[in-house]
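Notes from the 1:1 (GR / supervisor)

We went over the backlog. Supervisor wanted to see one worked example end to end before approving the batch request, so GR pasted a single chain during the call. The sequence is below; no edits were made to it. Supervisor asked that the structure be written out right there so they could see what the output format looks like.
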Amino acid sequence: MISIIIPVYNVEKYLRECIDSLLNQTYQDFELICVDDGSTDESYKILEEYKNKDERFIIIQQDNKGAGAARNRGIEVAKGDYIQFLDSDDYFEPNMLEKLYSTAKENDADMVVCSARKVDENKNIIESGNPLWPINLDKIVFDKVFSPDDYAEDIFGLFCVVPWNKLYKKSLILENGLKFQNLSSSNDVGFGHISRICAKRIIVIKDELINYRFNREGSIAKVRANSCENILKAAAFVKNFLEDKGLYLYYKEGFINGFKNHIRSGISLCNNEQYLKLLQDCKNIMPDEWDEFKPVFQKTYITPEYLQNIIGDKKTLLWGASVFIRGVLESEKEKNPNIIGIVDRNQSLWGKQVGNYTVYSPDKIKELNPDAVLLTVLSNNEDIYKDLIKLFSQNHSNIELLPNIFALS
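Structure output shown during the call:
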């Protein structure tokens, strides 16, 4: 049996769709533990309505303590052999539970990870097949059991930390005393990293089984900039765990690389005041790692003017329609005539506009015939830049690969 744990807080607009998509699953052997986290709307009343119709519902009420505390409370009462943490504003493909459960059983997996797509308020798909989210398509081998040791340098960057695209053996959680941090944001970061270190058998499947409602009003993701120091508290939490297990030096490189990207993600949300606070928090909370995290802070605000200076008079394609570069381009006062477009491997973006520029498939590079290409993906930029050097030397030797803008001082 699967214990599904869902924190619920003021989601009356989406809750029925979330629950109905679970009740319509092809796999039905589950209990649904809904932890109402002090909702002030009609969410609790909706839960009661479903509970009166289905004995598999367990409703727990608590004062508003956050999603981390709600998930921890759900773990305490879970009776299933497997646990899945889901979010109450998402909805799920009908075969999600069956696919995850059968994969776990067939492979005796401690953790099964699936992919997801992003949807907007109206259920339109806005992102599918993203090569970096929620799974790093360049790193992972699908449908093959592996252990953390198999990816020691990359284990923190193989897939994102969110708990809602994973099925866990309950024994993995209980035997390792795994809990979510009680933080207003990023409460799942520590759990996400530690659980993958503890898991002996992990398997990742490519299926997009979850429809993740992206950037909705009222979501924690919308207010993370006000509490970016929580990323660093999560880093300290993970480091302490690794040190207690005598594993920190073994996983240090992966740990540093993984949290560089968490910090970058936080910085991309920050205004100048929040950025300066995060910089100081990093020095205070992670003093021993400051020298290694410091480069992340060197080029925080890349502007249209900065891009113009790097590009000069070269006809240039930008590589990657990342959230980071979207913010930069949307702040342009006028279109840069030397930016001829953006290439991105996320096919749901092809043909769409980012700022004043069209997003193209990488297959269009030769047709577009740029003088140069400039990397504009902030996360994992070191690895991506190395891959681009190889790609352009082999396939596009006539096109100049401009320096990595995130590595420039």
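Supervisor's comment: The mean pLDDT is 92.
Batch request approved.
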